[in-house]
């Protein structure tokens, strides 16, 4: 990325017209200097932009199915618990990050952790899951899930 802390540098940026540089250069430079003055540890961090591995995608898809079962039992839309992107982020967390309440991930805190997060964390930590398909009296099929103790 180009440094924009000088007027000459701003003039060279593609997408900024010369009249904009004349009008806003001082304000832009002030903002850039203020941003550079903030210590790195106080700046937001962004997740890795690498593409997820196929195994991570499959794991998140599996967790989404589990989440659908849990939300169905609660008569709640799955998205109220977590989105697919949030499940993908959960899959990418390291094991030591799964054990603590993490306010950065809504599945690991509060009521969401109680109704879904703990189950999903258990699965990610290797606890087995069993599914049973049963026929009901009305002919409909039902899917039941239970965790196995490792």
Mean pLDDT: 86
The CATH architecture of the largest domain would be: Orthogonal Bundle
| Proportion of helical residues | 40-55%
Poorly predicted runs of 5 or more residues = none
In CATH, the topology of the largest domain is named DNA polymerase, domain 1
3D shape:
elongated
Number of domains: 2
Beta-strand residue percentage: 5-15%
Give the N-to-C terminal Cα separation: 49 Å
Strand order of the largest sheet: 1-2
CATH class of the largest domain: Mainly Alpha
Rg estimate, integer Å: 24 Å
Give a structural overview.
The chain has 150 residues and is mostly helical. It folds into two domains: 7-42, no CATH class; 54-147, DNA polymerase, domain 1 (Orthogonal Bundle), CATH 1.10.150. The protein is built from seven helices and two strands. It has helices spanning 7-12, 18-37, 54-74, 78-81, 84-92, 95-98, 110-124; strands at residues 129-135, 141-147. The protein has a two-stranded antiparallel sheet with strand order 1-2. The longest helix is centred in the middle third of the chain and has 21 residues, at 54-74.
List the helices and strands and how they pair.
Blueprint: H1 7-12, H2 18-37, H3 54-74, H4 78-81, H5 84-92, H6 95-98, H7 110-124, E1 129-135, E2 141-147
Antiparallel strand pairs: 1-2
Helix pairs in contact: 3-5, 3-7
